[in-house]
């Protein structure tokens, strides 16, 4: 059974196909309105979410399908000690596809091994978040027209930010990509990502703490929230949470066609004064996420022979 746990589970050709499907859904939504008629998506969210969960749900409804879910992790049998594997086996009896978010790294993989239906990882701890990357990729494609020849600044919590890890994985497959990794010392990209992805693929990158110095060369600036829920102590969080706040002044030396991205939710990282700047793309990412999730649900249900 085909599941998507990591963005690398999808080949570059498959990413291109998903983008083509999403663009077609944007242009011809009526063509897809019954594509998953009477099929069921189960959303299993063991961590808070607004966009990811609601966009999966909206995606399934717009494909003509239904959604079942648990009201919260605390209200499910996980609170009684049920394992992720048993929950996944159980839900396989009720639904056709699962979208799962869990605080533990690797939980989605465990669910996928146990489930009889496709599982989509909607975020596993500080590890990865492939469908946010699908949203990011469609946004980059629609803004830049290509995935090649880009200098990408990733700024904020690069240690715990799972969206950052997945985006690095995905963009490392394209030509002439350079990363500028902007973070406090304590929140640098984990060494496994640098070793297994950036170094293996010989992708040029620099690490810096200085956002303004990096600004002029960036084609994309991907801001992130400091991931409070992954910190061991609140003092460290409080010290680091406002390390980077993007304001109009800090954009003074930015390229006129910079794309400013953020997976959201934002806390303080981007001043609301930037929201009306034509370079702000974060609410476009939200919408693009729904279309890419529609494309992914369609693909996995077709491959499973469900539709
Ligand atoms: C992200 C996440 O959950 O990792 N949110 C999202 O899905 N758009 C980013 C975050 O929580 O900071």
Compute the CA-based radius of gyration: 19 Å
Briefly note the structural class of the backbone. Answer: alpha/beta
Structure annotation, total helices? 10
Q: How is the main sheet built?
A: 5 strands, parallel
DSSP strand tally: 9
Order of helices and strands: HEHEHEHEHEHEHEHEHEH
The helix fraction, in percent, is 25-40%
> Could you tell me how far the N terminus lies from the C terminus, measured between alpha carbons in angstroms?
14 Å
**Which regions contain 5 or more consecutive residues with pLDDT less than 50?**
none
Portion in strands:
5-15%
Strand order of the largest sheet: 7-6-5-8-9
Rounded mean pLDDT score:
97
Task: Based on Cα principal axes, name the global outline.
Answer: globular
Bound molecules: N-carbamoyl-L-aspartate
Describe this structure in words.
With 307 residues, the chain is of the alpha/beta class. It contains ten helices and nine strands. The chain has helices at 12-27, 51-62, 84-92, 107-114, 130-144, 162-171, 191-199, 211-214, 234-240, 282-303, and strands spanning 40-45, 66-69, 97-102, 119-124, 150-155, 177-182, 205-208, 220-223, 259-261. The strands form two sheets. The protein has a five-stranded parallel β-sheet, covered by helices on one side. Helix 4 (107-114) links the parallel strand 3 and strand 4 (119-124). N-carbamoyl-L-aspartate binds next to helix 2 and helix 6.
Features of this protein?
single chain; 307 residues; alpha/beta; five-stranded parallel beta sheet; four-stranded parallel beta sheet; 10 helices; 36% helix
Could you give a quick summary of the protein structure above?
By secondary structure, this protein is α/β, with parallel strands linked by helices. It contains 10 helices and 9 strands. It has helices at 12-27, 51-62, 84-92, 107-114, 130-144, 162-171, 191-199, 211-214, 234-240, 282-303, and strands spanning 40-45, 66-69, 97-102, 119-124, 150-155, 177-182, 205-208, 220-223, 259-261.
């Amino acid at each position: 059974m085909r599941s998507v746990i990591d963005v690398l589970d999808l080949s570059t050709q498959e990413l291109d196909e998903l983008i083509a499907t999403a663009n077609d859904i944007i242009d011809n939504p009526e063509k897809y309105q019954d594509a998953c008629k009477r099929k069921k998506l189960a959303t299993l969210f063991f961590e808070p979410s607004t966009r990811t969960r609601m966009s999966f749900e909206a995606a399934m409804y717009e494909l003509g399908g239904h959604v079942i879910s648990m009201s919260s992790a605390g209200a499910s049998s996980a609170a009684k000690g049920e394992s992720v594997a048993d929950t996944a086996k159980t839900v396989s009896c009720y639904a056709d596809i699962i979208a799962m978010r869990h605080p533990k790294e690797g939980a989605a993989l465990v669910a996928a091994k146990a489930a009889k239906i496709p599982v989509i990882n909607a975020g596993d701890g500080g590890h990865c978040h492939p469908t946010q990357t699908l949203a990011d990729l469609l946004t980059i494609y629609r803004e830049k027209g290509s995935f090649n020849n880009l200098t990408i600044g990733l700024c904020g919590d690069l240690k715990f930010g799972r969206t950052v890890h997945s985006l690095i994985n995905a963009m490392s497959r394209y030509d002439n990509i350079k990363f500028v990794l902007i973070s406090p010392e304590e929140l640098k990209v984990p060494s496994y990502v640098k070793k297994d992805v950036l170094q293996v693929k010989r992708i040029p990158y620099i690490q810096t703490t200085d956002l303004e110095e990096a600004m002029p060369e960036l084609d994309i600036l991907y801001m992130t929230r400091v991931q409070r829920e992954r910190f061991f102590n609140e003092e460290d969080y409080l010290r680091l949470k406002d390390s980077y706040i993007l304001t109009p002044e800090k954009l003074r030396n930015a390229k006129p066609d910079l794309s400013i991205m953020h997976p959201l939710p934002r806390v303080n990282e981007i001043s609301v004064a930037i929201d009306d700047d034509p370079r702000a793309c974060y609410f476009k990412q939200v919408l693009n996420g729904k279309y890419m999730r529609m494309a992914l649900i369609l693909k996995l249900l077709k491959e499973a022979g469900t539709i």
